[in-house]
Structure formats: structure tokens, C-alpha cells
From TrEMBL:
The chain holds residues 523 to 1033 of 1035 of the full protein. Transmembrane segments: none annotated. Residues 35-489 form the Aldehyde dehydrogenase domain. This is Bifunctional protein PutA. In the C-terminal section; belongs to the aldehyde dehydrogenase family. Oxidizes proline to glutamate for use as a carbon and nitrogen source.
Amino acid sequence: DDHARSALIAAIERAAAPAPAAAIVDGADAGGPARPVVSPIDGATVVGTVREGDAALVERAVAVAAGGFRAWSATPVETRAAVLEKAADLLEADRAAFLAVLAAEAGKTLPDAVAEVREAVDFCRYYAAEARRCFGADVVLPGPTGEENRLVQRGRGVFACISPWNFPLAIFLGQVAAALAAGNAVVAKPAEQTPLVAAAAVRLLHEAGVPLSALQLVTGDGAVGAALTGHPAIAGVAFTGSTETAWAINRGLAAKRGPIVPLIAETGGLNAMVVDATALGEQVCDDVVTSAFRSAGQRCSALRLLFVQEDVADHMLALIAGAAAELVVGDPRDPATDVGPVIDREAKARIDAHVAAWAARGAVRFAGRLPTGALAAGTYVAPTVIELPSAADLAEEVFGPVLHVVRWKASQLERTIDAIGASGYGLTLGVHSRIDATVKRIVERLPVGNVYVNRNVIGAVVGSQPFGGSGLSGTGPKAGGPHYLARFALEQVVSVNTAAAGGNASLVAMG
Ligand code: UN1
């Protein structure tokens, strides 16, 4: 309600300026040259500073984490889970400070920042519960008399966690919490654009009881990330970001390490929504605007390609343009704002160039208004609707508030489905239809990770909608789902001959 909202805004305004984003090794600032972190809100305000890491920093961080792994993996599951739950409590208590950094550093609107803190809290609690469920007790397996077989799951070692700027708190904490829950030590590298919120999250985890040696933060560019994932002491990699970077990590692991290092990658999408003539117009409009433009389109789940059946296309486009015209693009800290800035100048330049190329071909059907005045130097992109001749005209994810529309004829449903599958991506898919058989045909033919029927396609809820795709969109398993933690753990089967002369005592408490 309004009162809670103004109290929250007041708390955000009071929240102290963020501490510098140090590279954190063994709980202390690891040093290194400082670089300013500039806010996308106005392209000028320095939000804080970050240390530029290098290969030597990675060396130190991995060495400390390797020591930390021994103690942390020997910590009982119940203690590890309790520490993550404590982190969730601290995060909720310190919500205003995190909201302030999310707005200033990542340009998150208030509703997006609130949802992100909620998701981060959910990840901590969910993985704590999953750790108890999955690792709470060794599994005793059947075998002949005189033999005891136990399946033990333990941490693999030092996990590298590489996270994106678009969910700099939720995905960062989700990866780290999962790796820690399974008994690994972690060296985390946040995106270059969003080190401040990551550093705050690491300090919070340490305060919650994660040993200083079990969690390190290295900051820096792609070279730092490459030094980390290529390090011979790394036992696993969790990565969320572009498909291109996932390929590079995978190539590096294959070349340097062989097929022995698990890579858990969550990457991009060319997410489609199919709308047929039976869909409810106002509902489609609301879901399209939310899916394509909320968070300035900077979600891997966001809608990129809308396939509208020809008979209703003009009507749907008019509704969508009408609703998009109402969106306020501007300062994300202003409660009236719907769409904040994109992350930085490079991102804006890439999206603007894409839109300009289609504008030159007369394909832009709608373009929103940009903010002026003090925000003119911020990295804003107006919500835009482009009508494409065919789906094949969009080969790559455009990571911003740009919706592409393609018309399809009733006789061409199969071709539409094939066009969606042809992209090779398989992250989210929307279907708006009142005909169950149509929904079934579309859903069953596409190997897409998360399918949404008659609703929007963003905002997967931890535990209810485990999230992740296939093909170019990622390796699985799904984050926030029941199979995620298993991938972070090492399975060991211990078989003991208990009938041998003298007999071995039954092995207890292996885990
Ligand atoms: C991402 O954007 O990198 O469902 C993934 C959603 C979010 C997407 C996160 N969980 O919209």
C-alpha cells in the first residue's frame, strides 16, 4: 500500500552510499587499482568504486578457497542450511540498502528491485531446504549380506560462480548459495557493471556465518573470468550470461581441463509468443507489454518475437502500441517510472543501431518517448515495436525493450512452430490461445525450458517455476528446481565388506 511504499522510499533515500566493491579475499580488501562505477540513471553519477582484479588476484582467491573448502565441506548440512537462512533474514532486514544499490548501480525500477531482493531471499531459503532434503543423510543402497553400500554426496571443491548484471543480486546469490549449500567453497566473479551489489552480498554472507575462507569475490573483466574458469584447481563452473561467453568458457574447459569439470550454464533466448485469433486481446496486450518492456527488456526470459495470427494482428498491434505509449521511461527511483535505463552505453548503442537499421526499412510500428533534462545523458532506450517480414530476420537476441512482431496465417501454424524451433534457442515460450489442441501442438513440438500459457513469460518463481532452457539457452539443470543442487555435488559410493575377518564397523556419518 501507499504508506508502506513511502516508508520504503524514505528508507532507500536514507540508505548509506555503498561501500567500495573490493575484491574480497579471506574477508579483506585484496587491493588493486580502483575504477569508478557510473550509474546508468544519468551516465555521470559515480555510485562507488571497484577494484580491478587480475590473474594474480584469482591465484590468491583460489588458494584461499581451496583451504576453506576443507572446513566448509566438513560442516554439517544443517549448519550450512542455517547459515543460508540467516543470510535470507539479514537480506530482508537490510532490504532498503540493497534496493538503493540495485537502483543506482543496475538502474532497477522500484518494483523490479523489490522483486529481485525477494527472489534472492527465496533462493537462499530454497537451497537451504534442498540441502537438507538432498544431503541430509547418506543413502543406504541394497546389496548382498556382508556388504554395505552407501551413496554419499559432498562438495566438489572450489566452484567458480560467474554472474550477470541483469540480476546482480538474485542470480549472484542463487549461484553462490547453491554451491555453498552443496558443500563447495566459492570464488565468485560478478559482472563488471555491477560489482557493488555483489560485494554487499558477500559481506552479508560472511556476516551470516559463511567462513571467510569459503567465499571469495574477484572483480574485473572477462580476462579475470577466463583466468578463474581456466584455473586447474576449479572443480566446477556456474555461469549465467551470454551464449557466446558460455561457449568460450566451455572451449576453455575442454582445451585445458578435458570433460571433467561440470559447467552449469544459463544463457540467452530468442523467446517467442504465439497468439491465435481466439486469444483475449486485453490479456495479450498486458502480457506482451510486461514480457517485452518490463525491466527494459533486460531479462533472458523476455519476449523478443511475437507471432500474431493475421486476422487479429492489426487489432493486437493497436492495443499494444496504445499500452506501450503509456509507459513512463525514466529515473528508476521515481515510483511513476515503468522502464528504467539499459545497463550502459555499449548496450544502448547496440540496441539503437538495431532499431535504426529497421527504421531505415520502414519497419518500426511504434517508438516510445525518451526522458529529457538531467536524464538525457542516461542510457535510456524507448520501448519499440518492429514488424519483421519473417522470423528468420531476427537471428540474435537484442537485449533491450524492443519487440519484434511477425504475422502468421491460420494455415501456417506448423511453419510458425518450425520457425521458432529453428533459432536453436529454447528458453521461454508464450502461447495465447483458447484452443487446448493448439496449445498442445505448439508446446509439444518445441524443446523450450519454460512455457507460459495465457500469461506473461517473465518472473519465474523459485520453487514453483524452476528456470532454465535447452539448446543455445543453457545446459540445465533448472535454477530454483529440485535437480539443481545435485549438479554441484560429488557422488561417492562407498562399499564395505562387513563380513571380512573381524569385519569393519559400519561406516557412519560419512557425509
Ligand atoms: C535472466 O534474465 O538472466 O523468469 C534469467 C525470469 C527470471 C529470468 C532470469 N528468472 O524472468
